[in-house]
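EI: anyone free to look at a 217-residue chain?
SC: sure, send it
EI:
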Amino acid sequence: MTAFLIAPRRMFLAFECAVLFVLMPMLVYRHPTRLDVHLGLLLVAVYAAVILNKTPGFSWREAWRGRRLTAREVKLIAARFIVSTFGIFLLTRLIEPRGVFSFPTQRPVFWLIVMILYPFLSALPQEMVFRCFFFRRYAALFPHKGAMLFASAFVFGFTHIVFHNPISPILSFICGFFLAASYLAHDSLKKAAIEHALYGDMVFTVGLGYYFLVGFH
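SC: here you go
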């Protein structure tokens, strides 16, 4: 059984992918609680870590370090983040005008805690699952870069249906494209987690973080 999990056939991979990234979010969507959301991420992250650890040729050190980014790639990542920040600011002004920078100004201590913990408790395990694990595990299902980029972005966005609002899945789908494109360039869990953390902390700071919390909408 262990050997089959490590070197499965395409049919099993498709089934596993559907269970982890479609069925599980749908189950949590029906009865969303903070415990269910965090527990679901934890379970998938543990499963992904176990599979990666047993995958022939996989190295956590290499996966963490990845490839070095070129100056052009760094500029592209920075430009996407700047444009995204401006876009999130405009969207917040449109749909939650009273929420613009309300989190850091009204609850500065809690905001600081979120800024510190989010990268480790949310961004890192998500990038391990949606990029590090997904790109390696399902390479046979999505052999072309464009297909893999879209698939990674789609499942990343779809899993955010657990928050019961359209904003979270849509923004996560768009952000998923950016993160997947960056991961294709550097293949680094560390860089992916840092970039994800920057986007997440930015969204909470600007004012749309409530759309990524259970029970807000």
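EI: The radius of gyration is 17 Å.
SC: 👍
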